[in-house]
Amino acid sequence: MNGNQLHLWLWLQLACTGIVYPSLVVGYIGQAAYLSKHLDQVDHAFFNSVPTPVFWPVFVIATFASIVGSQAVISATFSIINQCMALGCFPRVKVVHTSSNIYGQIYIPEINWIMLVICLALTIGFRNTIDIGNAYGIVVIIVMLVTTGLMVLVIITVWQRSIFFALSFFFVFGSVELLYLSTAFFKVRKGGWVPLALAGVLMAIMYVWYYGTTKKYEFDFQNKVSMRWLLNLGPSLGIVRVPGIGLIYTDLVSGVPAIFSHFVTNLPAFHEVLVFVCMKSAPVPYVPYHERYLVGRIGPKEYHMYRTFQPSFGAGWGQGISMDSSIN
């Protein structure tokens, strides 16, 4: 973190501590005081509690706050999907780094369109802000509870503090959040089931993809072809070699994948030049041209077999396989 970033971070801390947090507390206290005398106006307590002379300025500020909040949700979704994809828990999608200097500033077109469809479906399906508020309230409380639970892991593993300290932290903050969550259960039937269903679908997709990817890698690793078997086939690999370049995708960074033996035993001919392509995620906005691919020879030169290792990153950089005069 350089000097400018540190300076900005300090200003953000001061703004959140000295302006944002006190404003939220005062706003919630005012709404609570208003509801204590107007229990019949629970559905629109915020705008009903605003005095008439300042209604429109508050309305404008609330609209801008909603825009900022929506942008934060979109950016957070892109970041989470990118991290899940790097961990092998989500299908591969195109990640566009919108800045070559700011780390983590990304855009995912597919996820953006999916979020658009989901937002339109929820708006058309709910048709009122009350049910949307019920769904949003449950999500906020669950996020707060999950964040507290993850903070316990940070206290134990990163800060190296005692388990008693971590449990005390969870007891102080988690008990309040669990109390809020218990009061929100009655909203499940009134729209709160939608985010829970979406979370279940996403968790199922992540689990299935991670399970399948892990099993596939384990199979390839345990059944990869040995170099001795490959050398016994001879330069022609026991099949007719035709002009051209054949690309075989694999997750293995070393060795020959088991699918290659399937090709050799079932295909009467194969390309004269074989390239095993291995792509890995690189969480950086830009990679120099000379580092975008690594090509190495597999076996003797007359076999014409090579392996290329490519980082997979944003804006289509390095997506093609470059071959120079060494592959002949």
Automatic annotation (TrEMBL):
Keyword Transmembrane: yes
A Pfam family the protein falls into: K_trans
InterPro entries: K+_transporter, K_trans_C, K_trans_N
Domain K+ potassium transporter integral membrane: 13-231
Transmembrane segments: 12-34, 54-81, 102-124, 136-156, 163-186, 192-212
Subcellular localization(s) per the UniProt record: Membrane
Bilayer topology term: Multi-pass membrane protein
GO CC annotations on file: membrane
Protein name stated in the entry: Potassium transporter
Naturally occurring in which organism (per UniProt): Ceratodon purpureus (Fire moss)
